[in-house]
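Quick illustration for those who missed Monday's session on complexes.
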Amino acid sequence: MLPTSDTLNRVSESATIKMAQLSRELAAKGINVISLSLGEPDFQTPAHIKEAAKKAIDSGKYDSYSPIAGYLDLRQAICEKLKRDNNLEYKPENIVVSTGAKQSLANIFISFLNEGDEVIIPAPYWVSYPEQVKLCNATPVYISTTVDSEFKITAAQLEQAITPKTKFLVYSSPSNPTGSVYTREELQSFVEVLERHPHVYVISDEIYEHINYAGKHVSIAEFPSMKDRTIVVNGQAKGYAMTGWRIGYMAAPVFVAKACDKLQGQITSGTNSVAQQATITALLGDQQPTYDMREAFRKRRDLVLGMLKDIPNVKCNIPTGAFYVFPDVSAYFGKDFNGSPIKDADDLALYLLHEGHVAAVSGNGFGAPECIRFSYAASEENLKEAFTRVKNALAKLA
Ligand code: PMP
Ligand code: GLU
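Prediction with 4'-deoxy-4'-aminopyridoxal-5'-phosphate bound:
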């Protein structure tokens, strides 16, 4: 057997994907597991988007390699979307389309990070940010927050975390896993700090843009002083229920786009041609299915928050975006079930899986070891059953 590389050894397995895998394994044994682990809409991709893909296949025009950064008509459609939804002016040369937003992020980190560079990551964070940074031998610098501040950082915390080695600040708003959404005023306060530190670039992960119950989405790139130092990352997975289609993109200064184009040309080439064509229809066609899905998620959020209130010693913020609840469950640490101790969130997630048959993800991978993440992108019926199971399983802990 070959020893794995130092590069791979620096990286942990994705906590979300590991839990989804465990729950699939139990389900394959015939156990009725309700999986609230993986963050993916349970809706089908809207019909008009699927139709566009079928047309693209039948046209015979999309059987060949696509340009590395994406077809020009798709990059134009992305520019149109950014103008329409975000009031941001970009040209196709600013856009790179990739195999999911995960690849967009990896492209940026690999293209710009050297050993010793620092990336500021407010915690809780999406599991892959620190791991991708470590892959590049760079250093994640965490800013910690608690449920009492809705897990949001302050401008003062940001200022304190910046050093001459800081290359990027990366965050998602709406946030995976907390569901928090930064307001324009909060972003303004970050901008004031960042204006004093012009060497820091921002990676603004806006993949949950359309799943926002707080009002209109705000991007930090809308602040004129930040536009040339912000890389907006977005994708089709969440708002358009297209996780499997693997389309993500960035809108970035031209030098960033060029670097990522070069890297992608050596790693994956242009992403799937048919999915790119379907994305043009998704972005420029009827947006109603996206709005309808958001409203369904809002109803489910309310349902889940109502059920969580009935579970003793669970403390949760009110998420205003994305489709996760991220309660603090640390009151259950130190209890045990039939002599087996529940030491931490990892143990609790495994306990809920094996005893409650509900898959959730430990907060450890998200930088919040006191929490556990449940996705509510599931049917109301499954959510009702799942949180009843969680309540019963927790009640058995002594
Ligand atoms: N960013 C965040 C915050 C996410 O939750 C995800 C989850 N998929 C991604 C990026 C990656 O998305 P994609 O499926 O487009 O790779
Ligand atoms: N982003 C989703 C999640 O957090 C999908 C899984 C992944 O790519 O990590 O569950």
